[in-house]
Amino acid sequence: MTYLLGVDTGGTYTDAVLLDEAEDRVVASAKALTTRPDLSIGVGGAIDAAIAKAGIKPSQVGLVSLSTTLATNALVEGQGGRVALVFIGFDQAEFRRAGLEESMKGDPVIWVAGGHNHGGGELRPLDVDTLKAQLAALVDGVTGFAVAASFATRNPAHELAARDLIREMTGKPVTSSHELSAGLNGPRRALTAVLNARLIGMIDHLISSCQTHMARIGIVAPLMVVRGDGALVSATMARERPIETILSGPAASVAGARWLTGETDALISDIGGTTTDVCLLSGGLPAIDPLGARVGQFRTMVEAVAMRTTGLGGDSEVHLEEGLRTRLRLGPRRLVPVSLAARDWPGLVHDALDAWLAQDAVGEMDGRFALPMWRGTPPLGLAPREEGVVARLEQGPVRMADAVRTRLDLPALMRLVSRGLVMIAGVTPSDASHVLGRLDSWDAQAARKAVTLFARRRNGRGERIAEAPEIIAQAIIDQLTEQTVECLLEAAFAEEAGWHDAPEVLARHQLLRAGLTGHSGILRLSAELALPVIGLGASAPSYYGAVGQALNARMILPEHAGVANAIGAVVGQSAVHAEGLVSSPGPGLFVAHLAEGPARFNDRDRAIERLRTTLETEARAKAVAAGVEDMRVTEQCDLTEVDIEGQPMFIEARLRVRVTGRPRIARG
Questions:
Q1: Which pLDDT belongs to residue 296?
Q2: Which alpha helices (H) appear in 508-589, and where do they start and end?
Q3: Where does residue 485 rank: exposed (0-12), middle (13-18), buried (19+ CB within 10 A)?
Q4: pLDDT (tens digit, 9 = 90+) per residue, 446-502?
Q5: What DSSP letter does each residue of 373-415 carry, written as one string?
Q6: DSSP secondary structure string for all residues of 614-665
Q7: Contact, 122 vs 151, CB < 8 A?
């Protein structure tokens, strides 16, 4: 018998599921904590536990497929490696567009003359000397490069030349913007390339961890990775384009929800440790976002399911908002729950909590710990204050107040957090759930101490925010319910046409909220969510009953909801595509924009046919590299013409060739 193994690595847990290929059923599932910085421990633990439960041999696994929310979480939390952007033929105004300036977070930008025009002609030569000098002047610590050139999708020559030079001089990975998108928006292509470069190390580490463990235990099978649009691609392709794995976990959860429930029309809400992902399932299929995947504040040019991702999860940071009344807010940053930190470092955590609880006043950093996320040699390329913080963490976790000795150290610590080099442990909804007896996974005693300490904080009136840990714990869970309801209502309004206000405004409108609670006075109002909600995630059964009640909606909590992503990872199809453009820069001239450069024709149909042939060859080659079997080729041609005095005038033709099929399964 042959089994399919799905693995999903999230911010808190790594899940593994085994499916019987012949009977199309779940045989076994298992969870292990996601282990940072060494992901292989969590990946291996989940895989080994699932295989042991199923009672099979590793050699019986014919396919392994991996989904992850690590890329999504990193973008939501503003994490990732330090990168340099090589910006060719653009000006400062274009740099500020699309959030590009903000996304660089102070990382180096190399400005280089060059670029092409909309027809693919060279505007000015590439300034190779400047590029060489700037590369040589870079300080240590850059982990990768992004290259974006003006109109590179019409002619990629300058991006390719810059890419080759960077690889030769630095040996670091390079992302070229034209390889990620055929769209014309240069700043957004550059943003997408920057984010891709930031994620390369993280996704490469995850894939390597999985492959190493597969080899160690004797799994000889292809490894696939779920892309953001739900398609499965080879691990090699995912390594090259990790940005395409943003929304990988959510896309897998959609496939898993459909497989688990048989529902064709529903809102799917998947709560993890870091994010809540909401997607509309319509006619059995999720919509693809036509504008490109949006995660947090970033709008990329990556095809992905139309998913609303919010920094809200079981491990979200709990904020006490300033004001006379006690008000809480969760997220978007993920913290390590104190109960989890105490499991791994009981002496440090309990001693610190006891000392804090022995005092009457609660300090700003009380209840928080700084946890280093590197092993061995400290990270390079740090500013002096960052080096000082790192030096205090070299022996392991410490109280946050011991890592931050002056107020100037705090921004340095937060920069380390943003790069994924340090994590903060503090009170989260997971800790609140331990206090209320809803969860019993880690150190409940530490959770109670931490929540008790949090309850002693004071609001604007100078009053303690709660008299008992159970009170503030319930308030935290209630806030999680409220923000989840907001997520679902925003998603519903975003899918409805004809509203003048933004979904965020409508979701919080007092008339809607009155309708949901059945207001009855001079006016009688009622409102409900018309579609069922499929709740996914390990903590969904703990939280989502109240969410369904608040929305007056049917809440579906399927069996295996906690491992739906891992299930979705192996029930999907493989798919790759190639796309390109034929333009007409002048009368009787037609240009097919190819990877090797523009090809000019005096006949429209010949130009389109040349592009079609090239794209099909490219797509088939990608499909072979992606491990696709039983290939099916489809194409789409969007022809743009305008009517001039009753005669059509050609503007452009955009072609897309798609190859789909099932991934190859190894049979013993």
A1: 66
A2: 510-516, 540-551, 564-571
A3: buried
A4: 999 999 999 999 988 888 999 999 999 999 999 999 999 999 999 999 888 788 899
A5: ---SSPPSS--HHHHHHHHHHTTS-EEHHHH--STTHHHHHHH
A6: HHHHHHHHHHHHTTEEEEEEEEEEEEEEEEETTEEEEEEEEEEEEEEEEEP-
A7: no
- Among residues 28, 32, 8, the alpha carbon closest in space to that of 18 is found at 28
Q: DSSP states of 4-39 as a string?
A: EEEEEE-SSEEEEEEEETTTTEEEEEEEEE--SS-H
- Which residue in the block uniquely carries the two structure tokens 């299929």? 285
Structure tokens at 478: 């209630």
Q: Which of 14, 75, 84, 4 is nearest to 43 (CA)?
A: 14
Count of helices and strands (H, E) across the chain: 22, 29
Q: Give the C-alpha separation, 138 to 132, whole Å.
A: 10
d(CA 186, CA 94): 8
Give the sign of the dihedral formed by CA 73, CA 78, CA 81, CA 87.
Answer: positive
3-state secondary structure (DSSP) of residue 172: coil
Whether residue 668 is predicted with pLDDT greater than 70 in this model: the reply is no
- 591-609 pLDDT, tens per residue? 999 888 889 999 999 999 9
Sign of torsion, CA 223 232 275 205? positive
Instruction: State yes or no: cis peptide before 37, omega within 30 of 0.
Output: yes
Instruction: Give the tens place of pLDDT for each residue, 259-274.
Output: 999 999 999 999 988 8
